[in-house]
Amino acid sequence: MQNLLIGATIGHAIIMSIKTLQDNAIGKIALNGRFDIIIPLALGAMLFSRFIPKYNWLDRYGVGIMVAIGASLSMSRMVDTDIINQITASIASLSYGDLINFINAIIIIFGTTSSIAYFIFTKEQKGSYGLFTRIGRIVMMVAFGAVFGSSLVGRASYFVTTISFILRDWLGIIA
Amino acid sequence: MSKNNRIWKKISKLDDRIILALLFGSVIVTQIFPVGLPLPIMDTTKWLYDGIEKYASPGSVIIIDNEVSPGLLYENGQGSAAVMTHIFRKPGIKIIITHFTPESPIMFSKLVDLKWLNIPDDKKYGEDYILMPYLPGIETAYAAVAKDLWIYEKDLYGTPLKDIPMMNEIKTLADVDLIFQTTISGGHADAAIRQWAQTYNIPFGWCLSAPMLPTYMPYVPSQAFGAIGGVPGGAQYELLIKKPGNAVSYSDSVSLIILLSFLMMVIVNISEFMSKTGGGES
After folding, report:
1. Which of these, B154, B204, B200, lies nearest to B183 by C-alpha position?
2. Of A128, B82, B102, B151, which has the highest C-beta tally within 10 A?
3. Which helix (H) or strand (E) holds B274?
């Protein structure tokens, strides 16, 4: 049963890939005369050269281009989404909402800065600074606990929905 | 060794099969006899609902990035369907449904077949909503679609976009007013927030799996106006749109399992402590 599921999934993915290649590359070259598409098509084909030991160096060109485009696209935005906007949101949260939100924002800012301070290894962590970084470590533990708890909820959901699918939708034992 | 100590030791070494049988039994009992445990609405769920109420106004263009996967259909499918149902209920909107996972176009039909997603009769394909085919590449694909929605050329069924009336005035992501993404993949979530929401400053909402939610919480509400996660999030959203479905019925069982797991953790930790310290020894 497991083999059947994996086989069906891979089979579907292969067919989808062939269809995508047909629609977005071969079809456009043949029907629309888009010969510029031959370049990415050739780079893609080079990826398969790793199966031929004599020519496996060719796949570096395809991989190199893919990594370069992927990294440039993601890293250029990552600075905004993961650093600047996170800092801005943390500070901005101080200025809106009621007293509870204000206290919440203070805790978030304190927790964030103390967690970051924990990873500054050029300054010895002792005295009041050491206490500050120890608080940061506790904050991180709380965060990991929240992730674990949520993961438990997720696994419980998988369990419940699978049991329910078998008993209700498949076997029809429960209404 | 005292009798009490032996009992604590026995509890701490409880057979896994007994725990599994307990969990299995609790699922069956709560599925047959729903307990109706309280289901409070989380802030993030409410924010998602309010955001859709605010941004899905008549005349707006909405992208639903549907990345529902068969493996976790029952995990985040219900939440996705609840939010999509909410969006489809809105009058005078145009909806573009995109797919960046090979199996997700099939899963959209599956949501409709299972009657989890209700598309109102007045919503016509090609006039009010359109399904786009699978596009590979994740980050590069998201970036390419953002620059030019006509990169697809054809819809999922092979109809050229120029023959689809609703696409006449929609060219790039700059023409879009709201994005809702449902995914269980961090790669898709990251790419959408980076290439779509952030670059074009478009209101963005999420339906994630439950384990993903804490990881993506720092983006809410500053970069994503709201988010739901897994069955609990789906159940809360079903209540908000007044369409209680499977997620609500599952939430009883999920809550009971969490409660049981928590109790077991406490009991086993106490028994482990007591058996090691010789607790109860007279």
Report:
1. B204
2. B82
3. helix B246-277
